[in-house]
Specification:
452 residues, mainly beta, four-stranded antiparallel sheet
């Protein structure tokens, strides 16, 4: 049953409003910021992809309109220094335990690959050796989010247990905050900024809390217990709800973006909620469920849930050595990465970690129906990964789908490039004459400037 509230605009109405806001935003804010905008951004309209690179400890900027050409690398000396301080602390007292909120998760499956690249943190997945502390360690950036109203981008890093606020217009760090200042909070996970850019939601996994902070000062606005290892978040495009799930189980938690109160709980599903997303009207949410081959779906108005099953194609299963083992995320989720495609087509895409496919579902009716498989591999007999940590993201116009290291043409359903950096943490930021007009979310979602 679909929600039919007369107060809920259709996706096409919302997209039209978004385009109008995106067009007007530069003229509204240019008097404030346009005069001193970064000359590297140049004049005219730009659609830029910002990828955080854990290995290089920087942010890489790609020009979507110019064949995804790498056009800028933003150095992060504050994070580099924090990681070096973490490394020296570990070396001085190696028996003191992890020494950082996320160190225990950064061991295992990518250790060999990290060492081959010159050392650094071993990666996610559990088991194996720890990082080689004689080399600079890799970052462990957990979430990245941006706001077109302010031109700020925020990211979280688990080893050093910090949040970072970065001004993309002037390319400078605005502040860093040690999460421990909030009553000893540990492990900031997949953060998100609200639609109006005013509040930062910080799932604190190791402390079973959802912190809500003023996005520009870091002052605490709210603090909610979530005894499920809060992990992932998604910001509703209308600015109404913030969706959050826990790695160890529980329902979908839904917060009011303005009051920061918990207003709904939907579920639980058959397993813990992993990556999650929602449609543009905030009527439905979609999620990966740890042991589910398929997707979980929830209707916000009624609380009804579905689990939609889809197995790997039989022709791929003929080659068991082609499966990634172990999969690159903790607790071994079968699928890890999901996003709603922007535009008029009602499509939700999810990634099969083990076998290297994108699966596409049509959600124009409920429950969603599978319509197509998109292979990411080039050889059906060989594994895709395991160094490709899985995630799904789209360009704001819905033309391109991104998974770590891949660019997929969303219309032809073909991988067209493997030339972008290997990264889970991707956002698009659009500019007009150096002023942001819109940003993307981390699991789909388009957020134009102008909404206050």
């Amino acid at each position: 049953m679909k929600s039919s509230s007369p107060s809920t605009p259709s996706p096409s109405t919302f997209r039209a409003a978004s385009l109008l806001l995106g067009f007007l935003a530069p003229f509204v804010v240019s008097a404030v910021r346009g005069a001193d905008a970064n000359p590297n951004l140049g004049a005219g309209v730009k659609h830029l992809l910002y990828l955080t690179d854990d290995h290089e400890v920087d942010i890489k900027v790609y020009d979507i309109d110019n064949g995804h050409k790498l056009v800028r690398t933003l150095k992060l000396p504050e994070l580099v220094n924090d990681l070096d301080a973490w490394r020296k602390k570990r070396m001085a007292n190696p028996s003191a335990g992890p020494g950082g909120a996320g160190a225990t998760e950064k061991v295992g499956t990518k250790g060999g690959a990290a060492a081959a690249k010159g050392g650094g943190a071993a990666a996610k997945g559990g088991g194996g050796r720890g990082p080689d502390l004689s080399h600079p360690v890799e970052a462990s950036i957990r979430g990245v989010t941006a706001d077109a109203n302010s031109g700020w981008l925020w990211f979280s890093e688990d080893k050093v247990n910090k949040l970072y606020a970065y001004d993309v217009i002037h390319e400078k760090m605005m502040w860093t905050i040690d999460l421990g200042k909030y009553e000893g909070a540990e492990f900031p996970d997949r953060i998100n900024v609200t639609r109006d850019g005013k509040a930062l939601y910080v799932p604190v996994k190791n402390s079973d809390r959802m912190l809500v902070l003023d996005s520009h000062t870091g002052n605490k606005l709210a603090d909610h217990p979530m005894h499920t290892n809060p992990h992932n978040t998604f910001v509703g495009e209308l600015g109404k709800y913030l969706f959050a799930g826990g790695r160890s189980g529980g329902p979908m938690y839904i917060f009011d973006q303005h009051t920061h109160q918990l207003v709904k709980e939907i579920g639980p599903f058959s397993g813990p909620i992993r990556p999650l997303t929602a449609d543009p009207t905030e009527s439905y949410f979609f999620a990966n469920i740890t042991k589910l081959e398929g997707i979980g779906v929830g209707e916000v108005a009624t609380g009804k849930i579905w689990e939609v099953l889809h197995r790997v194609p039989a022709e791929r299963e003929k080659y068991p050595n082609a499966k990634t083992e172990p999969m690159p995320h903790g607790n071994q989720p079968i699928h890890h990465g999901i996003a709603v495609r922007p535009g008029s087509k009602k499509e939700v895409w999810t990634i099969d970690d083990g076998w290297g496919y994108l699966y596409i579902f049509d959600y124009s009716s409920m429950p969603p129906k599978w319509i197509e498989d998109v292979p990411l591999f080039t050889d059906i007999t060989k594994v895709e990964g395991p160094d490709h940590d899985r995630w799904v993201q789209f360009s704001n116009d819905g033309r391109y789908c991104y998974t770590p290291g891949h660019i997929i043409d969303a219309n032809t359903r073909k991988v067209i490039s493997r030339d972008i950096a290997l990264s889970e943490k991707i956002v698009e930021i659009d500019f007009r004459d150096g002023v942001p007009t819109a940003v993307s979310g981390q699991n789909g979602g388009v957020y134009p400037a102008g909404l206050k």
